[in-house]
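I'll show a typical protein example:
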Amino acid sequence: MKRLTIAPDERRHIERLVDDVLAEHGHWDPVQFVTQAKTVAESLPLRVRQFFRQIQSEESDVAVLSGLPLSPDLDATPTGWDMAQKTGAGRREEVVLALCSAALGEPFAWGNQQDGRIVHDVCPTPGMERSETSGSSTAPLSLHTEDAFHQCRCDYVALFCLRNPERVGTTVVRADRLDLPAPLSGILAEKRFRHRPDQSHVGPHGHSADVADLDAIMFGPPGSCYLRIDFDDTFAADEDDHAARDAIKELYRHMCDAVERVVLEPGDAIFLDNYRVVHGRDPFEPRYDGKDRWLKRVNLIRDIRRVFLSTGVRSRVIS
């Protein structure tokens, strides 16, 4: 795992950048700022910019940037993303993540996720404890590729930890750490599978009838495979294809044996390659006392034109 811990002078440098952004933009709107974010990100400390260049060029599967600035008077953890949206909770931290994210890729969003927000809040939400969304808590968040159902799924998932008092683990499985039997790899590389949109796209009352076209779960260059899987929403395209159904189950067993836990500390930002890593989250008991686990999240894509072609307009929000 690639890691960079920023120095105190670099942290102060980033804090000044955040001050400048908020002073210039007044009412903070990530959707408006994101078109300029890459230019502003050129002013990040040199070591930080080099860190992100290395992630891109080396195709680093998991990378952590530690020591990012947090507000000394950090807001209480909101009880849901909508509350964060109303109150502007964690605004400075959103700027930090937006700048770092823009140094790695192009931020974009989904119109049916958190009201089309570019920067999401990941925090426990009353009534959503056992859902398949970022508001869940007491149920584990299953291993998955982010937005596996869509051809325009992100290249990277960025998560910035604001609070994690119970040291809840982010679970990851790296494709390169899997040692799969050749027959299993062969089935997974065939276009015998489909993916449904998850609950964060279609709501809690069942699954959408819309599914992705036939596709493989494993693909890409030999010796450095890519993955596309959501164990809640990936299934054999043909219900009579018992070999494909069994392959998903066998892959899950192998992934459980290869799971790593990354415990994010406040000020840590993790960047996950969404093609080379599947991720999830350990369960935990929320207290709803303002001190619960709280992350900010951004989806990043290498080529923003993929989003424009998907939407048909020059919009970073896929509707």
